[in-house]
Amino acid sequence: MTGACEGDNQSVSLDVLTKKMEEFAKERNWERFHSPRNLLLALVGEIGELSEIFQWKGEVPRGLPDWEEEEKVHLGEELSDVLLYLVRLSDICGVDLGKAALRKVELNALKYPVTLSKNSSNNASHSV
Question: Where is the NTP pyrophosphohydrolase MazG-like domain (predicted)?
Fold first, then answer.
């Protein structure tokens, strides 16, 4: 799936995205609009747009083998919108998103130990 800049195979840190989003808002004098509430509502709107992509497709196999490249590019754009608003929201709220996510994974490991999850089909929700 395309979506990164041509020839760019590096992974991108949350810190880099945070700085880029801060600069982007500053350059446009949009900081005054970036309250937690406004960013959350924008994030919800983007999640709605992401949901629309899957709305009538039914279950989709991993890797999206039947999707056209144009659909995959569009998906990448909508996923990026969600990520960028989430990164901006966490920055404005003073939450270190990377650390919070790692902590949540650790908490989930305690809540859903491997020994109880291995052969259980009852645990279908797979909470995050």
Answer: 35-101
